[in-house]
Structure formats: C-alpha cells, structure tokens
Design goal:
Layout lengths: L1 H9 L3 H18 L6 E11 L3 E8 L5 E6 L3 E8 L1 E4 L12 E10 L2 E8 L3 E10 L6 E9 L2 H10 L26 E7 L18 H17 L4 E5 L9 H10 L4 E6 L11 E6 L6 H10 L2 H4 L14 H25 L5 E9 L11 E5 L6 H7 L2 H21 L3
Helix pairs in contact: 1-2, 4-10, 8-10
The structure holds zinc ion.
The site of zinc ion has 7 residues, from loops.
Length: 411
Amino acid sequence: MLSNAVRLFRRGRWTAALCLVLAHVFLSVMTAPASATELTAKAARIAGDEARTRIVIDFDVKPDFTVHYLTSPNRIVVDIAGTVNFAFPPEQLEARGIYDRIRFGAMSAGRTRFVLTSKLPAGLEVAEARKNDEGEGWRLVLDGTIVTPDQYATMKKQGNWGNTESNVPVVPLAPQQAPSPDSVFTVAVDAGHGGIDTGAVTAGKNPVYEKNITLDFATALARELNTRPGIKAFLTRDTDVFLSLGERVQIARSRGANLFISLHADTLREKSTRGATVYTISDRASDKLADELAKRENTSDEVAGVEVKKEPSEVNDILIDLTRRETQAFSISLANSIVHSFEGEIGLINNPHRSAGFRVLTAPDVPSVLLELGFLSNAEDVKQLQKPDFRDKLVTLIADAVKRYREKLGG
Ligand SMILES: [Zn+2]
C-alpha cells in the first residue's frame, strides 16, 4: 500500500497518496498491540540531503505513533504512545539534511514526542513501523521530503494520522480542586522546562540539564514552604514531563494560587555573568539581557511542538486591566522581597530585579515572578547549583521572602 502511496506522491497526486498513507497508518494502529506503554529506543540513524532525509529509530517493541504538522516554524511532530527510554546518545539524531533542529523527549505521562523542524515545508513520504527481518525488534522509518506550501497546508489540515491520541493518558490539565479558603496562602511552584524541553544544557561530557536543576529546586522549595504555618505550596510538575507555558499558568489559576514562582537556570552569552535574578512581567523589557532571555523562554512551546494560540485580546476590558495592574504591583512587591532576602546571602547579578514579556508570567490575577537561580553558562554557578547546601539555603531565603510578602498583605 505504501509503495503505491510513494508512487502517487512522486506523481504529485498528493491527496490520493495521503489517503493511502492515512489508511495504512490507521490499519497499523488498529492492529497494533494495545499494551506497549514502555519502549526502549536502542539506536537511531539519520541520512540524506537537502531534498530528502531518512530517520530510522530502533525500538524493542512496535511503536504506535501519530504524525501531525505545525507551522511557524515548519514542524513535523511524531508522537509515540508510551514512555520511551532513550538508550542512544543524542548525537545519533543530530539534525541534518532537510531538518535544522530535532528534539525528542517525554511530553506527558505515557506520551513521547519527536519534533522535526525544517526551514522549508517538509512532509513525511513514509512513516512506518517495520519489523526487523533478522533479530528482534522494530524500526520506525520516517522519510521526509521538501513539499510545496500548498501540499504542506493540506497536510496540516488533515490533522493527526492514526488515532492513538485519544487512548493516551495525558497529565490532567486542571486538577479539580476547590480554591483554598482565605486563611491558607497558596503558592504554585513551577519547575521551568521539562520532558522534551530540556531548557539550557551545559557543554561537555556529563551535561547538566536546566529542567533537572529546576525540578530539584522546585521540589525543595515546595517542601520548605509547606513547613511554614498558613502556607500551602504545590508543584506544577513533579516529574520530568513537558508542560506548555499556558498550562503552567492555567494550573496555578485553577488551583487558586495566591502566588506563582517559576524557577530557571538559563545560559547567557556572557559566560562570566553569575548570580540570581528575579523577573517580573512588562510590555517593554528592562534591558537587552532580559529581552533575550524572555524571547528564548517563550520558545519553549515551539521547541516541544505545541501550537501557540493567540490569546483573545482582552486589553479593552477595563476590569481585567485593573486586575492586571494590581497583580503587577503585587508581583513587583514579591520580587523586591526576594531580592531583599538574597542580599548579602546569595550572589545576585547587577540590577537583580528586571522585567520582560515572559509568557509564563501572564496570569492576570496571580502575582507571578520568574527566578533565575543562577546561570548554566557560568562554571561556578553550575557547581553551586548542584550542591544541596546551596539549594537548601536558597529555598529557605525564598520561603522567608514569601512569608514577609504575606505579612505585608496582612495575612
Ligand atoms: Zn529556563
């Protein structure tokens, strides 16, 4: 069936070819074993040129998958049903040929994603799980080729191939929980990045991932806050999964958070810069460094193959505007409280309170700050961020700042 599809594709009979591919994928999905929730990707290969590129990934069991397409930038998204254990070095899947970026990792509990980004619109001629003739295991073959913008638009409109998506459990978006009573002050602690979105990564042999540092600090911070009377903290994620920026905001709001603290440890071009920084939201960035950082942070959804939906414009709503302004004042007050807490105790960068348009800080009604714990571009910070003593000191100081902020509110 697929060879027919390829032939039709080559003749430009795009829709007919796509139907055949769709039918094929549908059949393979229908006949696939229902269990495969844990898979091992043993090895990967990529080969090809600027016109067509083949990716082959070796699995121990048959992978169930779906494919869909996204624009701005052009991305082919391949979702595997199940948790994939990646047993091959990432270099085996370094972008080349038609692709200029390849990412893969956990998307949520039970879903793993590959995102293939290309400069020109590209589509998959072949996406197939093939059983190895010799030996055990399966290989996922993804043959990509450059397509016309029209073809790309058609592919995008077709939506998902196959239908595994609905069978895959995803992380619940809005845990059903009533907002806390007034007497309890609720803090949402957000570990930046996660899953397919690694965040910053140090160079060299044993790389340090921002997503792991942030989870480590977030877990410690939530624990510390929960020891303080009258304060209750929860994590937006407590495992290595991806959350979109919008989901992070939504989780905080749906659980009635009084504060939102997002933790990060990014890289800067200027390697000598080290120390902590506290960010609040603003339309115009306070400086160039803040602007660059916010732009990079805001690509998190793009990296993970999530379509960024334009928020409906609410600027004209005077009530929302007032709420935003009030929230903004609270956010700044919390940022000052954290800077004050760190002074003389923890290294801070110059002008440690800065602002820019971070999308994760857009909850209109939850005061929010983004804290750079240090920078993975600085060797000293990397060492420090891995020390439990430093972590415990830092989270105690943040918890002190939250307590002071709350007292100032009269809580
Ligand atoms: Zn970050």
